[in-house]
Write a structure and sequence with these properties.
The protein has four helices and 24 strands. It is of the alpha+beta class.
Length: 394
């Protein structure tokens, strides 16, 4: 009995100690930093991955066969239209041309003789002093001689063309690449690649947009008097800004039905040759939206299943547990986090433009959002105000 009595006393003391132990508060307040949203004019750019391209580019192929006997340019340099680039062994083509010219002279001589015979027989035929058959033969011989001269002329033109093709000239001003043949190599008509030459000033820059953005770029193409000087700029691979602005040139003829995208081509002057074909760069399109924008710290925006949310701070009246019987102190003002769905715009550094979902003057949570849910009680006590664009506060 005594042992049972002691156990009962021990259990009672344990229960009493548990009752006197301080219970943790229900729904503790989450410490946060707040940011007051203010409208402001924002300068930013829409950015698109892009590639430089030549407005004109041609692969040089030989039009005659033979060994390469001359290369007259420096690889990778700028060449002028009509500049001599390659020479293919022209001796055989020179011989063919000389032979064609000589043959034409023979036919021209035969034509002179035929013309004289025809004139003579025509005169005699008027007085019936020659057989009709001889006159007809003289006329036919004259016609054949005329045809032979025309044929000889065509042979001379063909031989001259082949002789000219033995020397390859630059078709336009541009940059020429590495030679694909060396001196002595035998080239074949239409199959052996000699080189590639492309225009270099101006230079095209191609990038792809979503079809939803097409009306905007069509409007930019139609607007000849663009008020924004830096409407189209590019960032090079080293993240440096190309010093000359570009203009929109071409919008592709059709939207890709599989990807829903379309290609846009810009044109940039390239006087110093800084741009080369095939370079990777980033096109920046100056934003032209009028009016102020809502700019908030990016860390305040939470993404969930492809949708974006922010937490705003709302004042709420709650029961005061310390008020006791004092009815005047039954309610106290507390901050509550309210989740709001937003439509986001361009990201600008650490900040993000909000298109809709919150209003100017709203207070949003920028630190501590990971611990929140809709309706969480929050406090700004013992928190340092955010440095991104505004003061924290209740």
């Amino acid at each position: 009995m005594k042992r049972v009595f002691l156990n009962a006393i021990f259990i009672s003391l344990t229960i009493l100690a548990a009752c006197n132990k301080k219970q943790p508060p229900v729904n503790p307040e989450v410490p946060v930093n707040l940011f007051k949203v203010k409208e402001k004019h924002v300068l930013y750019y829409d950015q698109y991955p892009s590639t430089t391209a030549a407005l004109s580019q041609v692969t040089l192929l030989p039009q005659v066969q033979g060994a390469v006997t001359g290369i007259f340019f420096t690889e990778g340099t700028h060449v002028k239209k009509g500049q001599k680039l390659y020479e293919i062994d022209k001796r055989i083509y020179q011989d063919s041309y000389d032979a064609a010219v000589a043959n034409r002279k023979v036919t021209e001589g035969t034509l002179v003789q035929s013309q004289q015979d025809a004139d003579r027989y025509e005169y005699l035929n008027k007085y019936n002093a020659v057989a009709k058959q001889l006159y007809d033969h003289a006329v036919i011989t004259l016609q054949n001689s005329q045809s032979q001269v025309k044929s000889a002329d065509q042979a001379v033109k063909t031989a001259r063309t082949n002789l000219n093709y033995a020397t390859v000239y630059a078709p336009f001003d541009g940059t020429i690449g590495f030679s694909q043949v060396k001196l002595g190599n035998v080239v074949t008509v239409g199959s052996t690649v000699l080189n590639t030459i492309s225009t270099d000033d101006p230079m095209a820059v191609d990038f792809v947009i979503n079809e939803k953005q097409l009306p905007r770029f069509e409007l930019l193409q139609q607007n000849k008097q663009q008020t924004t000087d830096s409407l189209f700029t590019i960032l090079l691979a080293d993240n440096s800004l190309y010093p000359i602005n570009g203009k929109i040139s071409v919008i592709d003829r059709a939207v890709n039905s599989q990807t829903g995208s379309i290609t846009i081509r810009l044109v940039f002057p390239n006087p110093k040759g800084m741009l080369r074909v095939g370079m990777s760069c980033v096109v920046r399109v100056h934003n032209q939206e009028k009016g102020p924008q809502l700019l908030v710290p990016g860390k305040a925006v939470v993404e969930q299943m492809g949708e974006y949310f922010v937490y705003t701070a709302k004042d709420s009246l709650m029961n005061n547990p310390k008020a006791g019987a004092d009815s005047a102190k039954q309610k106290i003002k507390k901050l509550v986090a309210v989740q709001k769905k937003v439509q986001v715009g361009q990201t600008i550094g650490p900040n993000m433009i909000i298109k809709s979902g919150i209003n100017n003057g709203d207070r949003i949570v920028v630190d501590g959002v990971q611990l929140l849910h809709d309706g969480s009680r929050i406090t700004t006590a013992n928190k340092i105000g955010p440095s991104a664009g505004g003061r924290g506060g209740r």
